[in-house]
Amino acid sequence: xxxxxxxxxxxxxxxxxxxxxxxxxxxxxxxxxxxxxxxxxxxxxxxxxxxxxxxxxxxxxxxxxxxxxxxxxxxxxxxxxxxxxxxxxxxxxxxxxxxxxxxxxxxxxxxxxxxxxxxxxxxxxxxxxxxxxxxxxxxxxxxxx
Length: 145
Description:
Elements: E1 3-7, H1 11-22, E2 28-33, H2 36-46, E3 50-54, H3 62-72, E4 77-82, H4 87-96, E5 100-103, H5 107-119, E6 124-125, H6 131-140
Parallel strand pairs: 1-2, 1-3, 3-4, 4-5, 5-6
């Protein structure tokens, strides 16, 4: 059962994600962090299989935290969670080591699908993101991912 760490600066978002995980068999919530620095520390301590990482957080943002975690633990799958439908954030996130990009507006219905995709060694990009632009970003990524 994949272990999931949630990193988001809003408690209600963390609780909502935890509720979705609890209602779906096959996922184990292992911890939470309120910012990028705490997320890096928790990832090192808890060794999760998957991290759900908010992009916009005060202090160290989710993209930088993703980069640090990916360099230290490349086997950990990271799903970026964001309000922003931005190809630049998508590109930066995947370059930092993320395997998924989920819009918060779609999280209630897409979270489990997104997690299953990245745990299954695939990438995931929210359906609202322009598919042609998303394919362009994926073509830019190294094949070794």
